[in-house]
Amino acid sequence: MKKWLVSVLLVFIALQLEAQDIVILKDGRSVTAKVMEIDDNAVKYRLYDEPDGVVYNISKSEIREIRYESGRTETFVAGRNPDLFDTGEENREFPGPGLAYREYRPYYRPSDYMPVYGEPYSPAWAGIASFFIPGLGQMVSGEVGRGCAFLGGTIGLGLLTGLGTAALFDNVAGTVVALVGSVAMLSVDIWAIVDAVQVAKVKNMYYRDVRQRYSLDMKIYPSVGYMPSSSGAQTSVGLALALEF
Predict the structure, then answer these.
(1) Do residues 5 and 13 lie in contact, with contact meaning Cβ atoms separated by under 8 Å?
(2) CB–CB of 44/79 below 8 Å?
(3) Beta carbons within 8 Å of 150's beta carbon, 6+ residues apart
(4) Distance CA 40, CA 42 (A)
(5) Using CA atoms, how far apart are residues 156 and 180, in angstroms rounded to an integer?
(6) DSSP 8-class letter at 49
């Protein structure tokens, strides 16, 4: 008797888990639903409490992620460039894995970035690093060549400013050189900070896409088996292993 009760309970739990998806919006709200369809621009769903009710449409741009009943989570990456992802002949869902930063950078908009727990790079720390040493933020985000370019430019402009300052009391040209060098060096410093933050954001969004499409996800679920036989039906309870890739 107890075995049958356990079996029924596990089946009930499994059916309940399979019945709902969680749609999490960018404003923090969540909707318990059953996702019906996902097209290029929108997600169609019914409310969990109204399985035969109205089918709602919501734009992908309003969704942060969907947690499906299977346990899989799909993140809708904020910041994708609609000119490359959503329109015309360049309608591509994802630029592809293994690309260099300069290749996938046009596909993302840093201004729409939303942080997700566990990302490899911190935009805040990248900006702070480049504030103290121009280019360091890019380097800690894995873009060493880009960081060296900012650092080298800052050093070069610093030398130029120093030469102008040395000639400051000799001629007007020295004053102009020092002024122009100082303004240019300040501009490069600010550019380095902003760029470091953007590099970290774009790389996070890109690697988020890579993980979502190419990672192997392993889940374990309760399993109930029913097998009729000449001696009577037998029920077995166990665990099922599911791989998602």
Answers:
(1) no
(2) no
(3) 130, 134, 135, 138, 188, 191, 192, 195
(4) 6
(5) 13
(6) T
For 54, the token pair is 């109205």
Paired strand residues for 24:
30, 65
Q: One-letter amino acid identity for 17?
A: L
Residues 134 and 188: their CA atoms lie apart, in Å, by: 8
Token pair belonging to 225? 């088996």
Q: Do the strands 42-47 and 30-38 form a parallel or antiparallel pair, or are they unpaired?
A: antiparallel
Which residue in this structure is represented by tokens 């035969």? 52
What is the residue type of 49? D
Per DSSP, the chain holds a count of helices (H) and strands (E) of 7, 8
Q: Where are the alpha helices (DSSP H) in the chain?
A: 2-18, 82-85, 101-104, 123-132, 136-140, 144-166, 172-214
Cβ proximity of 203 and 141 under 8 Å = yes
Question: How many whole angstroms separate alpha carbon 63 and alpha carbon 24?
Answer: 6
pLDDT tens digits for the chain (245 residues)? 555 554 545 554 544 544 578 888 876 688 888 888 887 778 888 888 887 888 888 887 778 778 887 777 777 654 455 444 443 333 345 677 788 898 888 888 888 788 888 889 999 999 999 999 999 999 999 999 999 999 999 999 888 888 777 766 567 777 777 788 889 999 999 999 999 999 999 999 888 888 777 665 555 556 555 555 556 556 666 655 554 54
Residue 40 to residue 23: CA distance in whole angstroms: 17
